[in-house]
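Now read these lines:
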Amino acid sequence: MKAIEIKKNIYWVGGIDWDLRDFHGYLTQKGSTYNSYLIVDEKIVLVDTVKHYLVDEMLERITNIIDPSKIDYIVSNHVEMDHSGGLPKLLKICPNATIITSPNGKKGLKSHFKEDWNFKVVNTGDSINIGKNDLQFVLMPMVHWPDSMATYINNAKLLLPNDAFGQHVASTTRFDDEIGWSIASAEAAKYYANIVLSYGSQVKKALDAVSGLEIDMIGPSHGIIWRSHINDIIELYKKWADNIVEEKAVIAYDTMWDSTDMLAKAILNVFEDKGITAQLMSLKTNHISDVMTQLLTAKYICVGSPTLNNNMLPSVAAFLTYMKGLAPKKRVGLAFGSYGWGGQSIGEIDGILKNCGFEMLEPIKAQYIPDDETLKQIKEKLTGGLK
């Protein structure tokens, strides 16, 4: 398990999580990495650690370069355990190391590990000289935890922003131009949609805070390192943070006896007739995190369910709960569904979408199996609403 030199005397020494498939509700089909960065200067610095079960892998990579006991500083950009999980074992090897972290980082680490380690608290604008390089710090609260911060290495022009610009990808390649822009950007979009979306205003502040830095490489805490598409990924983050949407629709639904499926397809036809790109996403076959990825840039969010026990199907309720927490904005919502007698599901969905702050189209519903005339009326109604 080799360390990889990404800049002169700066090495990737993280862990590769090939088998990860669930990241607190987010389907990670490609696995992930936990990226740690070793800086060898007059002072030896490790920026972030890894999940607890990959600590030995990280230590083996560090040992390729230096004796881990010689580490002087450990920068903890983020308390979450996929980045701080290696601290207890590492600090047994280098007990005199100083942990550099944000004010909330110190609180979080002490709260989680119940240890009074040697902390040095930094704020935006603070810097530490480690020899040829200075480490500069930028606090990025709520991107996506209160303690989040970025570390910038001035001579290397390297930004280490922890979870910002990350993707869940397990790969032996380390750079965006090796894995390819199409994969890197798609996984970055999925990451943003499922982890960062609700923090758009904080992302904009963070982008402003680092805009004055000269950056020719970005090393996030998950996935590949950006060196060829830095401007491209920054522009995408600006777009996503501003909730800039496209004339595109996502139709997410579940069905019991195929009647709601018929409505979903009728709605799809209307968008197609209007020249609006639309994607049909059954919640039986599409994971909610993949639906959210499509919603990242979609103007129209159409959600459908039949009525079950005076409510919507559990799969639809789960999706709406997940989506509401991620708080997409500047969207147009549509509730639809079929029913036998009560029809409560459509009103439930409509109310949730309204509470998300969406502009709403008139709900669509049909009793039992919609016939051709009913489907025709539904299409006409939606067509009129999309003027």
